[in-house]
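User: Can you model how pyridoxal-5'-phosphate sits in this protein?
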Amino acid sequence: MAETIFYKRVSYIDWLLQRVPQAQYDLGRSIIHSKPLSELGIDLKDIALDAKELRAYQPLSHKYGVEPENIILSQGGATQALYIAYNSIVRPGDEVILEAPNYEPLYRLAVKLGGVVKILERSPEKDYQIDIEEFQRKISRNTRLVVFTNLHNPTGTFTNKDVLQAIADITRDNKCYVLCSEVYLDNILEGDPVPVCKLGNHMISVSSLSKVYGFSELRLGWSVCKDELIRKRMSILINQYLGSVSPLIDQIGTFLLRKESELLERSREIISANIEIINNWMKTQKNLKWVKPAGGTVCFIKLPPRINSMNFAQYLFEKYKTLVAPGDFFWKSGFIRITFGQNETTLKNGLNFISRAIKEFLQAM
Ligand SMILES: Cc1ncc(COP(=O)(O)O)c(C=O)c1O
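Assistant: Here's the modeled complex, given as structure tokens:
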């Protein structure tokens, strides 16, 4: 029998959010700074609060090439979309395959629902790519759900169509579902970003306007699911238990989704300049290692071997008011996750303080 537990706190979210108000250089939260709605031409006077139908289905069904009924909108960002998907798929005793390093809520949800977690390692030696042979060895007749992120949180690694197709084929034969959080996918600098929902009815894409679109505060998220049974379950959960999306959020979101290319162009401009800043900084840091991210807002940096990443992140925060996420929260101590969605000055100052803190840390050893 699976243990009955209530919701455990997500330690990564606790640690980060407690520190955000005092952080002068926030390289911790994985967002791009937003643009004022008025600059985009949104006038709240145009919003019809009594609208009978939600509108965001239209641009999203166009974006993913699916029917509007295959889109499930959520008013709590990708966080809620993931919650809905997990709750519609995982039963006690079901095997859930998760990647490592991992985004903690994906683990907490699996455990909460009584899932039996199996880990698929994404190793730095293989540039954090998903190893399909390893995946094939991991999957079993008991596997109900496979969950991963594209781009990968925390490393920013891109999974290309060939690998996604291999995952789609293996999981189809195995009769299980795949859930992919694609909140960092749409602003990649090179390559073709393929949402998993395009590769099979058992493949579910989750995303939101929070990360690469720069509208974290709006909290509009969605899932794209073509599987009839799971789609119906998700729709009951959101519409009858959790509460459907407000017309206010829907109409602002629809407006933003219609400006997708403009928002992504801005996003790519910010992140390509910022990735270059980190790249140049990394060339001066002989004792740090990384795999350059494909886009998104996050990258993962290996500290010198003797440095404890939890202590280091706390020291950096206390002394230099610079916030990064310790790798420990992603099951990888000795690393820090740095985000690069903020303005250049914040990023450059933050990096400068990271170099200083590393020197001080090593000298004190
Ligand atoms: C991989 C991944 N999925 C989902 C989320 C949640 O996104 P949202 O802010 O839209 O709830 C995050 C947030 O950090 C994330 O990193």
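A couple of observations from the model: The chain has a mean pLDDT of 96. The chain is about 40% helix and 15% strand.
User: Helpful, thanks.
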